[in-house]
């Protein structure tokens, strides 16, 4: 999919290869002692020192663990960064970006960021005198207007949840930098296979490894990736000081997931595109939100910024809140659950689940209708997905 030129000159370094090859080889060397191909799960807390302070790179596993190091190197290579740091959850990673701020600083963030991001900004950092202005980040003038002299961070997510708005990373990074602020991008929905924000000028990339990078709905994790050694060192200080680091088994699971990221994403994208077309033509569906559809308001930007359009989509079922609830309850191929990015298809109803706390009028004004349904399109056979949705639609409308 990506045709960036691998440096064919000189010694082969995993970082020089195309992303499909980097996914499998970056940070991965056979164990020098045994020849074991796969990174061992270093279930270990502390490390022998030959003399006080004289160690072989590791002292204590909160600070560094070899399984985690291999994952960090792999993720840095995937995101076109120089350094990565892993955390015990996506929120642990997001918190660490916010640790870089001080009381009195200001943040500009998208008004449709992940709910946990909204919560930590408004209910945790607000208490520490860090104010956030939430704006429509698809409107660059609104973002410029929201910038204050004390704005230190512009937080961007793209595509966003659940309406799949696409934000212009390069333009937003420029606005951030004009104001001497950092630009952080939550790249969870797109993954580095489809979009590499550092290449567009972002300073920090955040990943919830729980989603596509892990890919199998069997672990929780997060990461921050940068292309700047000084910034990495600052992040590393908070990673170690706060201590929300993943255990080696979680790091191993994610490393197992990243190897197949490209093939999984190809299928996620293919299935989502076909399902989006099918839904778009369906009489019981009034609107489909998928950046791959030409009717999507940000289709051209998505086509430019992303290598493909991803596996997430939402649609408006033409019915009441209750009828849409019946749809999500009746599907069998699609499991009713929050989260996304695993090989299995998931379905949820924002108005009754993730966004239920928002008053109805406000929710409708934000474009989240009663019949809105979000799906994480898995890698099952797409015909089974269509049949499953058709059965659920019929049930809901009978
Ligand atoms: C899930 C998610 C997070 C939070 O990650 P956790 O691993 O659940 O802590 C952050 N951003 C986005 C876009 C997510 O989908």
TrEMBL record:
The keyword Cell division does not apply. Pfam families: Cys_Met_Meta_PP (PF01053). The keyword Transferase applies. GO terms for molecular function: cystathionine gamma-synthase activity. InterPro entries: Cys/Met-Metab_PyrdxlP-dep_enz, Cys_met_metab_PP, PyrdxlP-dep_Trfase, PyrdxlP-dep_Trfase_major, PyrdxlP-dep_Trfase_small. Gene3D superfamilies: Aspartate Aminotransferase, domain 1, Type I PLP-dependent aspartate aminotransferase-like (Major domain). Residues 1-35 are annotated as: Disordered. Its EC number is 2.5.1.48. Residues 1-14 have a biased composition (Acidic residues). NCBIfam families: PRK07811.1 (NF005871). Belongs to the trans-sulfuration enzymes family. This is Cystathionine gamma-synthase. It comes from Halorubrum glutamatedens. The lineage of its organism: Archaea, Methanobacteriati, Methanobacteriota, Stenosarchaea group, Halobacteria.
């Amino acid at each position: 999919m990506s045709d960036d030129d691998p440096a064919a000159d000189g010694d082969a370094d995993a970082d020089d290869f195309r992303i499909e090859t980097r996914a499998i080889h970056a940070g991965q060397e056979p164990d020098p002692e045994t020849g074991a191909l796969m990174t061992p799960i270093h279930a270990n807390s502390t490390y022998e020192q030959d003399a006080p302070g004289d160690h072989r790179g590791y002292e204590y596993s909160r600070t560094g663990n070899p399984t985690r190091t291999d994952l960090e190197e792999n993720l840095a290579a995937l995101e076109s960064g120089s350094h990565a740091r892993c955390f015990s959850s996506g929120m642990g990673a997001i918190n660490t970006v916010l640790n870089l701020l001080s009381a009195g600083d200001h943040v500009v963030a998208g008004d449709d960021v992940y709910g946990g991001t909204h919560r930590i900004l408004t209910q945790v950092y607000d208490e520490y005198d860090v104010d956030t202005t939430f704006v429509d980040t698809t409107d660059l003038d609104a973002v410029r207007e929201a910038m204050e002299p004390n704005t230190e961070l512009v937080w961007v997510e793209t595509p966003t949840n659940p309406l799949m708005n696409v934000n212009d990373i390069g333009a937003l990074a420029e606005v951030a930098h004009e104001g001497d602020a950092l630009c952080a991008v939550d790249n969870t929905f797109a993954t580095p296979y489809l979009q590499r924000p550092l290449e567009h000028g972002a300073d920090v990339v955040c990943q919830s490894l729980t989603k596509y990078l892990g890919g199998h709905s069997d672990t929780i994790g997060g990461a921050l990736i940068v292309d700047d050694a000084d910034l990495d060192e600052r992040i590393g200080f908070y990673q170690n000081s706060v201590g929300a680091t993943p255990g080696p088994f979680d790091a191993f699971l994610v490393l197992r997931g990243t190897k197949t990221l490209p093939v999984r994403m190809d299928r996620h994208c293919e299935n989502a595109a076909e399902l989006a077309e099918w839904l778009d033509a369906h009489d019981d569906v009034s609107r489909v939100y998928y950046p791959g559809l030409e009717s999507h308001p940000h289709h051209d930007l998505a086509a430019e910024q992303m290598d493909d359009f991803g596996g997430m989509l939402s649609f408006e079922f033409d019915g009441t809140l209750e009828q849409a609830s019946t749809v999500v309850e009746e599907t069998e191929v699609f499991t009713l659950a929050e989260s996304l990015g695993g090989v299995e298809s998931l379905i949820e109803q924002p108005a009754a689940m993730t966004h239920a706390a928002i008053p109805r009028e406000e929710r409708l004004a934000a474009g989240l209708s009663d019949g809105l349904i979000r799906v994480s399109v898995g890698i099952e056979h797409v015909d089974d997905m269509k049949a499953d949705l058709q059965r659920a639609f019929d049930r809901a409308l009978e």
